[in-house]
Write a structure and sequence with these properties.
With 336 residues, the protein is an alpha/beta fold. It is built from 9 helices and 16 strands.
Length: 336
Amino acid sequence: MLTFPPPLRPGDRIGVTSPSSGVHGPAAARIEFCEDWLRKAGFEVVVGRVMDGTGLTAGPAAARAAELTAMLCDPTIRCVIPPWGGETAIDLLDLLDWDALAAAEPTWLVGFSDLSTVLLPFTTRLGWATVHGDNLADTPYEAPEGLLSWLDVVAGPGPHVQRDSGVVAGWWGFEEDVRATQWRRVGEGRWTLHGAESLHVTGRLVGGCVETLCNIAGTPYGDVAAFGREHAQDGLIVYVEAAEDEAATICRNLHGLRLAGWFDHARAVLVGRTAAPDHPRMTQREAVLDALGRLGIPIVFDVEIGHVPPHLPLVNGALATLTVDGDTREIRQLLR
């Protein structure tokens, strides 16, 4: 059964902790600005102790798991967000107190990149809706026309309608502007549809970053096949995005997800726009088609859901309606 945390309102407490990478050096100024930005938006911000950024992770896996569990089980904290992603959040999955979490009221958990490793099992194991959207460092950036911020999405049940923004953007470097709130626009791009002339489907959203999620597919923490069977009546809309691995690696990873049953109940697949490199003999698009083209289901490419900003927040577990027809390119999410 899926459960959606209560709407997040100004005055609520937001917890900041680092399940993966921490904060150190010049980057700390950006995170401090973002914390203050949330406070000015009306939220109370609670910053955790496990935030050290001098190593690969913010601290020992047990400490990161304990702090994340504690924040999510604290009834006064209504949302938890990391400063950013990282590399090895997978190491805390079997250290989380899943029994305590199952007994707690659901809390919003937000992030992307390596946080996909944590977001997905909260939805597939616990039935908690989670938000694949901005990390804290990205939250102050203003959503372009057509998109919503994750704060808009978690403010109520919807329907939340987002449309192809046509914008390709980039981040401002910390040395350039630690207080940036406008994306650095670098080009234009549009969603493209493969496998159908038009598309209008409904399904439960689930997915995330390919490089991290391929490592938990087929484990108790990444059993999307079971999630699909549980929600077979609604069907799934599966979304994937490549962070940085070259195309042949992404191709292997997607084949692994396919063999693990990730797309067995998919009615469509969303693929995030990526700046990850091609292989000399295979493009990123070809990698997707090699692995998923044989499924015979529509694939929508170049959606704003990954490591090329801006970001279109998606709620794992939301009932979504995806339409690509002529000039209409939109996704509508209901949090129920």
